[in-house]
Amino acid sequence: MHKKEALFVRNTIKITVAIAAASAVALGASACSAPSDTTASSDKSDKNAPLVIAASPTPHATILDYVKDKLAPQVGLKLVVKPFNDYKIPNKVTDDGQVDANFFQHKPFLDTFNKENGTHIVPVVNVEIEPLGIYSKKIHKLSDLKAGSTVSVPNDPSNEGRALKLLADNGVITLKPGVGSDAKLTDVKDNKGVKITELEAAQTAPRIDDVDAAVINGNFAVGAHLKPSTDALALEKAKGNPYANFLAVKKGNENDPRIKKLAKLLNSDEVKKFIEDKYKDGSVIPAFGPVKS
């Protein structure tokens, strides 16, 4: 290679390296300034900033979207609804400030979550409940259950307690004095000869033909084309139910003016009518009011 050619090659390499370095710096700066999908919370110091809410898609985000589009603008409230299918992330991102609040859970779930994860989430106001129901393909009323009849219940602690209380409230079984929705099978004082079978919650609807009656979660009942309002032999009551789903925030944010506005809207006559019209099958029932500690 001639000296001139060698000099040209060296200069070309230097220029190429310089351009590459400059591009890398520019790319790094761009990456650092890119917005993050996980840090969507509003500025806490700006009480006019949008309120960011984590929610399960159905029915929670559906209800929030209605409020966002139809009611919030009337009171000067801006909402950003972020759907999550996961049941753990919404509390985590609320606790660390990535979102301002969440709407997806009931009190027994939250109490357990806070205890196990060291989070400090608190309920603000109840909104709705997806009621547990007793269903059957073999009988037409609960009094048809006799000694030897079989009834399936969900086997996870939270739902099994709900199921046993529902059976007790409707005279199918009797629980020990003082036992409520935290009941276990060992808390059944008198099963009146009815055999209680434990199944995974998701299996109670598909296997309804295997038993005389089944206690089924609202979402699984609807998924099995059962209509709680017409097909259930008995449903949980909405009033005072500890399994009502509520708006929740990190402790200390309960008095944020935007949270208070949203809480009021979520307990409004308009939202009550929206839920009743949207979920005529009874899968979701308004359950307004304060959350019992």
UniProtKB/TrEMBL annotation:
<keyword id="KW-0472">Membrane</keyword>
<keyword id="KW-0449">Lipoprotein</keyword>
<keyword id="KW-0732">Signal</keyword>
<dbReference type="Pfam" id="PF03180">
    <property type="entry name" value="Lipoprotein_9"/>
</dbReference>
<dbReference type="InterPro" id="IPR004872">
    <property type="entry name" value="Lipoprotein_NlpA"/>
</dbReference>
<keyword id="KW-0564">Palmitate</keyword>
<comment type="similarity">
    <text>Belongs to the nlpA lipoprotein family.</text>
</comment>
<protein>
    <recommendedName>
        <fullName>Lipoprotein</fullName>
    </recommendedName>
</protein>
<feature type="signal peptide">
    <location>
        <begin position="1"/>
        <end position="31"/>
    </location>
</feature>
